[in-house]
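Input record (one chain):
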Amino acid sequence: MNKVISVNDYLNNFPHNSFRNNQDQVIKQICDAFNSGYKYVILEAPTGFGKSAIAITIARTLGSSYICTATKDLQTQYIHDYNFLKVAKGKSNFQCRVKEDFIDVGKYLCSSCISYTEHECKHTSCDYGPCLSDESMEGAGCKYRTFINDYKIENKGKENERVFIDREKIENYKKEYSNWIHIKNFDNPREWNACYYFDQLFQSLKASHSIFNYSIFLSLLSNKNVMQQRELLVLDEAHLLETEIVKFRGLSISKKRWKRYMHDFKMVDYGYDIDGWLDFLIELEKTMLILIGYESLVHSLVKERVKTKRVVRATELFEDDASLEINAKDDYGKNKAIDKELLIDIVQDIEKLTRTITNILANPKNWIVSEVHKENYDVIRVELKPLDASKYSKTIVEKCPKSLIMSATILNHHTFQKNLGLDSENDKAKFIQIQSDFPVENRPIFPLSVEYLNYSNLQQMDVKSKISKAIDNIMYIHSNDKGIIHTSSYEQLNFIKENLSKKNSRRLILTDPEVERDEVIKEHGESKNPTVLISPSLHTGLDLKDNLSRFQIITKVPYPNIADKWTSEKRKINHEWYYWQTALRLVQAYGRSIRSKDDWAKTYVLDSAFNYFVKMNNNILPKWFLSAIRK
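The corresponding structure, as predicted from the sequence alone:
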């Protein structure tokens, strides 16, 4: 039976001294919805409304929660504002303590890339810890390694909740550590400390409230031993959930990467035939299992697939659920000729490979070959993706008894719910929509109609030159202001950079697929100069408040690229989805620079197609967005 909680109980858990406009009313609506038996509440509230404060209020009232957001910088923002939250990030964010020991004393040498320093080496993170590749370090072999059962919790669910390793366990670790042969390599005694990665992960899993990015949450979701029941699931930036699921479930096979494992690796050209590529993946899986010494298991895997139409997942072969640790070191399994760091990559790639085969076999009509990349007529990369993410998202939103699903851009909530698999009669979802109360004069949108832009005419030199000239002029108008330019591609980004005046070109800070997003944003924020971010990928999850951006340029109406086969197929299935995605990206880009009532920024749209798009889709574009457009 649904437990009824009073509105006052919710309001008393609000984390700030006072409410912004409508925050208390939204909390009351959420309270009423949950008390009325709704399992899902979908909240659309504009940038600056304070959605995170709403989420924290509901979480504290219900007593326990998983909070998910899109990026690591948004996780950081949450824990900065609400420090009782525990944060969980992936292995790549933490340096391995064993490798750190050698780095600190100047004895580090990576066997994979022959690097002597952490600055040169790409293998110092916990992704490549010896606990994943060295038999002597597996399980409790690494004395920095902790386990989830080591962690205790005090004052559970209260403001002063504490997650910790008890003193007896710590003393045992210190004792084992002092006799560890690894530290005998060093002249000076070293103190025991818990592994950075496992310590923060297990604290997050034990705590009442913790925040994940979608990437790590999706990877942990199937592990029932550690993902315990909590009362509330919060999905923030939920408009990105479909993208994150497709990215997590999808598979990319690149010739460059797989030749690291097999020098004679070749990719057969099956074009866009999913059945042909499925056969290719199954053969590749067998080859890889044999490569790492699991030849005896290949026959049983094939037999199991025929019997149950299900592939035994690689996690069942290589992972200890209690420790969340990939194990490629079984006595009968390990191929000792393979480099340790490379073995870790192999096992992780087999995991993705096996999961994809399983998913395709379960529902082949839901899978598509989205891209086939060629070089000199040879296939060098293939990408496979599921078309309908709702088949996977339903298991996510069902993780907890109640879900709060939030975004500034739900827009068409019927399309949104369908994407999440919440469109049946049994799925009771309450939709709450809040209009922006930011003064319209602080956030004007200027449609400049420089040129009608599509893929074809963006290849024309005169059109690209007009775009560059318009951007140059706007940057001169805002010569003392920081800002952001939203491009439609990296190709367009590079052309703009090369065709601006030298003065304005020097102001640009470029994003790059190879550079961490956080580093670029940090450089922009810390610079005393009027720098301007330029990127095709910063339209969401970015806070450029106040002087971080006083102007923004949207070069093109951000239609999803129909040259991409996945997008093209989605569009054929559902035209609504295509225009909804375009509107979503447009409104998200607009929201990067105006973050509060007192904030202000000018938005310039260069594409002549903007006015037509607005006219045809004003039924899904928010009223507060439409009211900002200058005629």
